[in-house]
Amino acid sequence: MPFDQNGHLIPGKISPLLEVPQQIVRPPYVGLATPPAYQGDNTYTEDEIEKIRTSGRIASRAIDAVSEAIRPGVTTRELDRIAHDYVIAQGAYPSTLGYRGFPKSCCTSVNEVICHGIPDDTVLREGDLINIDITAYLDGYHGDLNRTFRVGEVSEEADLLIQRTEQALMRGIKAVAPGREVNVIGRVIETYAKRFGYGVVRDFTGHGVGAAFHTGLIIPHYDSAPSYNDVIKPGMVFTIEPMLTLGTHEWDMWEDGWTVTTRDKSLTAQFEHTIVVREQGVEILTLSE
Ligand code: MF3
Ligand code: CO
Ligand code: CO
After folding, report:
1. Predicted local distance difference test score (pLDDT) of residue 2
2. Which residues are within 8 A (CB) of 32 and not within 5 positions of it... i.e. 6 or more apart?
3. Using an 8 Å Cβ cutoff, are 165 and 270 in contact?
4. Which of 18, 21, 119, 135 lies at 20 to 30 Å from 181 by C-alpha?
5. Is the CB–ligand 1 distance for residue 142 below 6 Å?
6. Residue 21 to residues 85, 93, 237, 285: CA-CA distances in angstroms?
7. Does residue 272's CB lie within 6 angstroms of at least one atom of ligand 1?
8. Ligand 1 proximity of 102 Cβ (cutoff 6 Å)
């Protein structure tokens, strides 16, 4: 049912909202159509960075928990339930729930879905790819990451796409240094992706994160110079989250207003970390350990 005769994904049925215990503090945007404007900059004190790391660790461990349930036959709704239960068990809030009306506690993006797939009654099949994107909010700060997983055994080209997309993220991270412009990140990612002829998604980007889910700072994954010339500074926090495809970088959006697919329905993968800039290089804030 959630796949058509060509094996392409179609919208499934979205279940009712899951509850969050009353004592868990909600981010300020919950219940609003648009988040309140973010006033601060993108640099943080050590105390704040520690809080982003705590949220990032919760989100990463939530993905670990979800990943153990990924197999043929599981629904994306069941995966969302695991993410939701894990995050609230840590006393944190799953940042996507109620963000601009998003109805679930994680994004589950299958095969040709580039990003922002909504968990529903889709049943995963052997050979599918699935990205799990989780953001946790605790003590005023968000940590945001995603990873792409294989459902059972996948084709060699899908397997390589996953490996190289993760490698693209790691190369983007290594390109970060104080004094450089943020457009260096996308230059490195796009150059690497082009070696394999992959599409590099342009219209969805990395972003400043921390005191707000999306602070307004934009981190492209393609070579955008001379645009996006914000200078990287120690203490800055943002995500890098490249989306690579086996075909086009062009996309379509479903009528749900969220689900973004490749226009040619080619497979796509994504990996994301939240990082903090240091005097020398960077530190990843979204690790499980
Ligand atoms: N976590 C996603 C990101 O990496 C944002 C998801 S917003 C949602 O920026 F509303 F779609 F959940
Ligand atoms: Co993000
Ligand atoms: Co994310």
Report:
1. 84
2. none
3. yes
4. 135
5. no
6. 11, 9, 29, 26
7. yes
8. yes
Two tokens at 138?
């605790």
Closest among 268, 7, 261 to 125, alpha carbons compared: 7
Distances in whole angstroms, Cα of residue 133 to Cα of each of 69, 145, 179, 211, 270: 15, 6, 30, 19, 9
**pLDDT for the residue numbered 281:** 87
φ/ψ of residue 283, rounded to 5? -130, 140
Contact 117, 270 (CB under 8 A): no
Tell me, in angstroms, the distance from the centre of ligand 2 to residue 272's CA: 7
CA angle 34, 224, 182 (to 5 degrees): 75
Give every residue of the chain whose pLDDT is below 70, as ranges: 1
Q: What does the pLDDT look like over 186-212, one tens digit per residue?
A: 999 999 999 999 999 999 999 999 999
- CA 67-139-53 angle, to 5 degrees, is 50
Ligand 1 in contact with 107 (CB < 6 A)?
yes
- In the chain, which residue ranges form alpha helices assigned H by DSSP? 46-67, 76-89, 156-174, 183-194
Q: Of the residues 116, 241, 256, 274, which should be mutated to test ligand 1's pocket, given the most ligand atoms within 8 Å of the CB?
A: 116
In this predicted structure, what is the pLDDT of residue 128?
98
Helix, strand and coil content of the chain, in percent to the nearest 5, comes to: 25, 25, 55
| Of residues 275, 7, 273, 272, the one with CA closest to residue 131 | 272
Residue 191, number of CB atoms within 10 A of its CB: 14
CA of 233 to the centre of ligand 3 (A): 22
C-alpha of residue 20 to centroid of ligand 3, in Å = 20
Please say whether the beta carbons of 51 and 280 come within 8 A. Answer: no
Return d(Cα 254, Cα 209) in angstroms, integer.
26
Quote the ligand 2 centre to 281 CA distance (angstroms): 20
